[in-house]
Amino acid sequence: AQQLGLTPREQEVLALVADGRTNRQIAQTLFISDKTASVHVSRILAKLGVSNRAEAGAVAHRLHLTG
Fold first, then answer.
1. Residue 41 backbone dihedrals phi, psi, to 5 degrees
2. CA 23/CA 26 separation, integer angstroms
3. Which letter, b or e, does each residue of 34-55 get, where b requires 16 or more Cβ atoms within 10 Å of its Cβ?
4. Which of 11, 12, 52, 7 has the alpha carbon at shortest distance from 29?
5. How far apart are the first and last CA of the chain?
6. Tens of pLDDT, residues 17-44
7. Is the Cβ–Cβ distance between 56 and 45 less than 8 Å?
8. Under 8 Å CB-to-CB from 62, ≥6 apart: which residues?
9. Which 8-state DSSP code applies to residue 66?
10. Predicted TM-score (pTM) above 0.90
11. Residues in CB range of 37: below 8 A, 6 or more apart
C-alpha cells in the first residue's frame, strides 16, 4: 500500500471501500465527516488509477490490502 502512495488513513478507508461501505458509513466508522471520507475516496481512486469504487475494491482484494 505504501508503494502505491497510500497513507495509513487511506489504507483504512480503502479497506472499508472494499467491504462495500458508503462514504457515510466510512465517515461514521472512522469518526470523520462525510466530506472528508469523500476526499479520501477520491484520492484513493486517483492513486490507484481506477475510475470507481468497485475497481478500487478489486485492487484492494487482489493486493490483500483488506482487513
1. -60, -45
2. 5
3. eebbeebbebbbebbeeeebee
4. 12
5. 13
6. 999 999 999 999 999 999 999 999 999 9
7. yes
8. none
9. -
10. yes
11. 13, 23, 24, 26, 27, 30
